[in-house]
Design goal:
single chain, about 350 residues, alpha/beta, four-stranded mixed beta sheet, about 15% strand
Length: about 350
């Protein structure tokens, strides 16, 4: 179990990531590519991704084992600001840090050491370390261009084609957590997280492969929802790095990245019925509003133009399904109780 200890200052500094982190999604998707589980969610995505992969990924395979530790430097905090910013940060990694984290990876100490349990990690290079990883350790930063090239090639094949879908899922997650924050502050936000995360103030407990305590020490915590994160949350190994908790986005449990189809047959039936009633595009727009969306967010989630999103929102507002609140130059659309009942197949929200 992972236990994250908060102080009052930490609670005041809890924040939600503003967008999906492209590097976290790329690294975690590499796990999903080699994982045979969740075929209903990721089977089509795996097939499509493998068909597009024509670049080298053997170095990535050495740096990202199927389970356990992978180097923190692969997911720099700057990645939250975009793919290019994250790659620039990775390009500027200090040689001593790279050597330290690669040594930990190459020590063969397993999941326990990977997540902070005591181990004897020597400064040398073990002969049992895979050759590609050993060469990378010995070459240091001179191999960075190759790593960056593999990351770019893999990202283009596995993540970039689905980015709009991933972004929509993370925005829906942000909207849900934002509603919890508005209703009850940071305490309610932490209590509203997915079931593998349990808020027992002042400690956030997470299902985890090993027993570990993280003390925030007034630095706060960045909550980073992820589409490709599965089953358990992930955090950085180095306790001195800015604290981040990557966790599975709740919306991710309901749709696959390739087809966008729901894994819940009842939901599929309701979506088809709603589409017959109000039209397919309008039903998609209504569902995409979720717990709130601006017109630009709505357009992106529904895959329509800004003008089309605005027009559909206007028609549904006149029908009493949507309400719109203006905030400065932007507007925020939310679903009314009538609209929510329609989405739920006639079940009136309590």
């Amino acid at each position: 179990m992972l236990r994250i200890h908060f102080t009052g200052v930490d609670l005041a500094r809890v924040r939600m990531a503003g967008r999906p982190d492209a590097l976290w999604e790329t690294i975690l998707s590499f796990h999903r590519l080699r994982d045979r589980r969740d075929a209903r969610l990721f089977g089509e995505w795996r097939t499509e991704t493998r068909s597009r992969l024509n670049s080298e990924t053997r170095l990535l395979g050495a740096l990202i084992p199927s389970r356990g530790y992978f180097p923190d430097f692969l997911t720099p905090v700057e990645g939250q600001y975009g793919w290019d910013v994250g790659l620039d940060a990775l390009r500027g990694i200090r040689p001593e840090r790279m050597r330290r984290e690669l040594t930990l990876l190459g020590a063969g100490t397993g999941v326990g050491a990977a997540f902070g349990m005591p181990s004897a990690v020597s400064g040398g290079t073990d002969a049992s370390v895979p050759r590609r990883l050993r060469d990378f350790m010995e070459g240091g930063t001179k191999h960075l261009p190759r790593l960056l090239g593999e990351l770019r090639g893999y990202h283009r094949a596995a993540v970039e084609p689905y980015w709009t879908h991933i972004q929509a899922q993370i925005e829906a997650e942000r909207a849900a957590r934002g509603r919890a924050l508005l209703d009850g502050g940071a305490d309610e936000l932490l209590a509203s997280l997915p079931p593998m995360l349990r808020w027992r103030a002042p400690v956030l407990e997470c299902d985890y492969p090993v027993d570990r305590d993280v003390r925030l020490r007034g630095r706060g915590l960045l909550l980073q929802p992820s589409f490709f994160c599965r089953r358990t949350a992930v955090t950085l190994h180095d306790p001195e790095l800015p604290p981040v908790l990557v966790y599975p986005a709740a919306a991710q449990l309901a749709s696959a990245p390739g087809s966008g189809e729901s894994i819940r047959p009842l939901e599929e039936q309701r979506q088809r019925t709603l589409g017959k009633l109000v039209g397919h595009t309008r039903s998609v727009v209504l569902r995409a509003i979720g717990d709130g969306a601006t017109t630009s967010e709505l357009a992106r989630r529904a895959g329509v133009s800004l003008a089309s999103a605005s027009q559909h929102a206007c028609v549904m507002r006149e029908a009493g399904l949507v309400t719109t609140l203006r905030r400065g130059n932007a507007v925020l659309h939310t679903v009314t109780p009538l609209g929510a009942a329609l989405l739920k197949g006639g079940a009136v929200a309590s």
